[in-house]
Design brief:
Elements (H helix, E strand, L loop, with lengths): L3 H4 L2 H16 L3 H5 L2 E10 L16 E5 L2 H12 L12 E15 L2 E14 L2 E14 L6 E9 L14
Parallel strand pairs: 1-6
Antiparallel strand pairs: 1-2, 3-4, 4-5, 5-6
């Protein structure tokens, strides 16, 4: 078996990240969900009063937490069927931008990745910007890459509405 460090290039990692972001921008939510492994954890910790991030999604508040893809699928179902307090017509327009992609480690079939991002969000004649850093564990061992773990650090968390999956 060939180690992923010998077969997965930074360009392949970036291409996967860009595709995931494009699915959100194009409202291709079903395709976006397919970027996630069934056991994938999606976590966006909150900033505590002391200025540190929360560290345990089970005992501390999080801005978003899904223990597996089932939670992500439920969120997408609510967005698509207008059963969401965060989404209604008109649909928001987003532009995701990714930079400073770093491959931190290769572990078996997975790659640990860190990158910076910002998202432009337009709705009701208002433009908002969200920015932060994300940490992914991506499994390149199967037919296609899959996210096994996603941690999103939202750096401008003082917002005037609910933050949702398409903001980050």
């Amino acid at each position: 078996m060939t180690a992923v460090s010998e077969t997965v290039t930074r360009e392949a990692v970036e291409s996967f990240l860009y595709r995931e972001a494009r699915h959100l921008d194009d409202h291709e939510f079903d395709e976006w969900v397919e970027c996630y492994h069934p056991d994938a954890e999606f976590w966006m910790p909150a900033w505590a009063d002391d200025g540190d991030l929360t560290v345990d999604p089970m005992t501390e508040i999080s801005l978003i937490y899904y223990a597996n893809r089932g939670g992500i699928e439920d969120r997408v179902f609510r967005i698509k069927t207008d059963r969401s307090s965060a989404t209604s017509l008109p649909e928001p327009r987003t532009g995701h931008n990714i930079s400073n992609v770093e491959v931190l480690a290769y572990e078996g079939s997975t790659v640990q990745v860190r990158f910076n991002w910002f998202t432009l969000y337009f709705r009701y004649n208002t433009l908002d910007t969200y920015f932060g850093t994300s940490f992914y564990t991506i499994d390149f061992g199967g037919e296609r890459p899959l996210i096994r773990k996603k941690k999103v650090v939202l750096k401008n968390d003082y917002v005037h509405h609910v933050v949702d999956i398409y903001h980050v």
